Structures are given as structure tokens and as C-alpha cells.
Amino acid sequence: MVSRKRLVLIALPAIVTTVLLAPLAQAQSKFIVMASTTSTEQSGLFKHLLPQFTQASGIEVRVVAVGTGQALDMARRGDADVLFVHDQPAEEKFVAEGFGLERRPVMYNDFILVGPKADPAGVRGNNIANALKRLRDMGMAFVSRGDKSGTHSAELRQWKVAGVDLAAAKPAGYKECGCGMGQALNIAASTNNAYVLSDRGTWLNFKNRGDLAIVVEGDKQLFNQYGVMVVNPAKHPHTKKDQAQVFADWVVSRAGQDAIASYKIGGEQLFFPNANPGV
Fold first, then answer.
1. Which among 9, 59, 62, 146 is placed 20 to 30 Å from 185, CA to CA?
2. For the chain, what percentages of helix, strand and coil (3-state, to nearest 5) are there?
3. Taking the model in full, what pTM does it have?
4. Angle between the 254-261 and 241-251 helix axes, to the nearest 10 degrees?
């Protein structure tokens, strides 16, 4: 028989360890998983933005940067607590299906058509539909992300506006990489006379430009809106709704909006806050 005194002595180290580690475990649990786009990650925005949120809230944000379609799928499975993406029709559908609590606008920038500086297709200007029709007619190389991302969805909409039915027949030079924005730009940079649709933020932070330059910009069709959504705990009770809500509230607050506006590369602002947070 083991004496009661010895049992106490045996149990004591485990109790002490539990007590000592409890605060550490609590601190480690104060994080959220955010599914977001490659454009917000590869533009460098999150390296600028998220430390400011963590300092203000004590909550760490662990980012999974994928295409918007994949990010929405992650959230549907309950693998993320909050979404920060840029495909408004898909986001509104996500909320309507009950997977998100609310979609709130956060910021915008724009898409641009990037291509060789010499612009062999002669598309330079501010009309994306005319540019895409000319690329099709000339059989020019075009790199599509092909990854169901927000940028890919925007690209498909632009082809449709241009009267090009990709489902019926893809243009001769059309290639899908199934990749993120940075990789798509790298492929375009290494492919002779290739064009690619990019978000401006990733382009400004892109270092391997080679012979690439902006050839089409300024078309109102190229507006690029970002939104934030907290995953609905009614669908996935294990998600961290309260901490995710703290982030969603912060990023549309004056502090969060000012942090977004202050992010610049070479003196050029990458994203423009438009959450209307008030004073």
C-alpha cells in the first residue's frame, strides 16, 4: 500500500507543473487563424499591419495565404476564424449561406495589366476589354493564375466583358499556372512577350520585374475591393469568434484604417481604406 503522504508527494510535481504552465498555455491560445489572399501577403501589407494589431490587442494572427476561393473553402470547413479576401460576389454568397456573420468593406486598390515594356500587342492605355480582345486576336502569351483566387475571378469577369468565352475556347497564348500572384508574375517575366493581370499591391512589391511594365491601368472595371468576415460559430462552434471579431472591428476602426493607409512602397500607397470608420 502506498501511503497517503507518498501519494501527495508523487502528485505534487504534476500539480506544480500544471499551475506553472497554465498561464503559458493561455497565452499560446490567444491567436486566430486568418485565411487571406496571396495579394495581401505578397504585397507586404500584413508584415506592416498585423504587428500593430497584436500590440493593440495581444492577439496573434496566423495567416494562411491562398487564393480567395481556397480561403472561402477553408472557412467553410471551419479551418479559419476570420477571412480577409477580395471577391465580393463570392463573399456575399458565403454570408448568405450562413458561413460568415457579416461582410464588411475594408480597403481597395486596383488591378493592372502587366506586359512587356515594348508592348508588342499595342494594348497600352486604360481600356481592359479592348486590351484583352487584342491579346486574343494576336494570340499573345497570357499567364492566368487559374487558382480560383479573387484575382482569377476578376480576370474571368474581364474576359467576359471583352466578349471572350473562355469556356468555349481559350485564346492560343492563354496558359493557367494554378499559382499565386508572385509566381504568376515570375512566369510572365520569364516568358517572352507575356501579359498577366495583377493586383497593384503585389506588383509594387515585386522585385523580379525583368522587362515587365504596367500597360493598362485606370479602367473603372479594374476596381479591387477587399472585405473582412468572421466565421459563423453556429456552423463551427470551435472557431474563435470573439477574438476574430476583435480583429474585424480593429481593421475597420480608425486605428486599423490609418495603419492600412500608412503602408507605402517607394512613397506610393498600396491600399486605400474605405470602411468609413467615423472619427
1. 62
2. 45, 25, 35
3. 0.82
4. 60
